[in-house]
Amino acid sequence: MIIRRLRSVPEFQEVLALEAEVWGYTDLADAVGIPMFVATLKRGGILLGAYDGARLAGFVYSMAAVKDGRPAQWSHMLAVRPACRAAGVARALKLEQRRACLAQNVDLVEWSFDPLAAVNAHLNLRRLGATVREYAEDLYGASDSPLHRGAPTDRFIAEWRLRSPRVETALAAGSGPRRDGALQAFPGVVRVNATEPRGAWQACAGWDMSRGDDELAVAVPGRYQEMLASEPALAREWRAASREMFAGYLGRGYQAVDFAADGVGGGTYLLRRA
């Protein structure tokens, strides 16, 4: 696998085709187009492609940003071709993005991700060392993508502080876990109804917004995108429940600092009082 910068219009066309494949866009209204790549890369944006031979296997794209008066990067898109997702391509792209940002003297990268997308949470928090302090409700509005269609596009805002000891530790750990034991051992916020499933899915049986512990565990269901396609009403229930939990606790000064996958597509966040 070779990762390199993408700079030409033919390369941008490859990226646009992969966007359509991964997100299932029909009219590309939500896609990043060639003029945007041209303009943002002229002024500090970073577009990296991972190639498996001559074929684009994945890409990561960020644009120059400012946070609290300091230069940063907003990482808008990360996509990996489905056939390549077990090969560590996403993490490799993020590591190369980190090197490119540090070369520009940028030490903060932010991006959004769905709090109910467990695979993304595991990569972002545990394997990369990002943290989350901000919850954005329906950030992108209605989406044409079948991955998101039918539910509000609520998102976490990940903060990746590239030179922090936390990130250095996460990157040194490679793909292995950084914490022994399950995060379920921490005081739990959400109750999952395991005895009365809704088809193939577990329902949320309630949640507790009164906790004041220094560390809290918040479980999320597995395969949320599949749930949204097959049981949209239940997926919207989970969205509403997770919105109240995460927006509420983050608004009280907690931040998401870790995520443990459960082996069946879901997992548990660790929230820590800042």
Summarize the structure.
This protein has 274 residues and is an alpha+beta fold. The protein is built from 7 helices and 12 strands.
Could you name the key traits of this structure?
alpha+beta; 31% helix; 7 helices; seven-stranded mixed beta sheet; 274 residues
Write up this protein:
With about 270 residues, this protein is an alpha+beta fold. It is about 30% helix and about 35% strand. The protein is built from seven helices and twelve strands. The protein has helices at about 10-25, 35-40, 90-105, 120-125, 165-170, 225-230, 230-250; strands at about 1-5, 45-50, 55-65, 70-80, 110-115, 130-135, 155-160, 190-200, 200-205, 215-220, 255-260, 265-274. The strands form three sheets. A seven-stranded mixed sheet has the order 1-2-3-4-5-7-6, sandwiched between helices. Strands 10-12-11 form a three-stranded antiparallel sheet. A hairpin with a 5-residue loop joins strand 11 and strand 12. Helix 6 crosses helix 7. The longest helix is centred in the C-terminal third of the chain and has 20 residues, at about 230-250. The chain is globular, with a radius of gyration of 19 Å. About 35% of the residues are buried. Mean pLDDT is about 90; it is low at about 175-180.
What secondary-structure arrangement, pairings included, does this model have?
Blueprint: E1 2-5, H1 9-23, H2 34-42, E2 46-52, E3 55-67, E4 70-80, H3 89-103, E5 108-113, H4 118-127, E6 131-136, E7 155-161, H5 165-172, E8 190-198, E9 201-207, E10 215-220, H6 224-230, H7 232-251, E11 254-261, E12 267-273
Parallel strand pairs: 4-5
Antiparallel strand pairs: 1-2, 2-3, 3-4, 5-7, 6-7, 8-9, 10-12, 11-12
Helix pairs in contact: 6-7
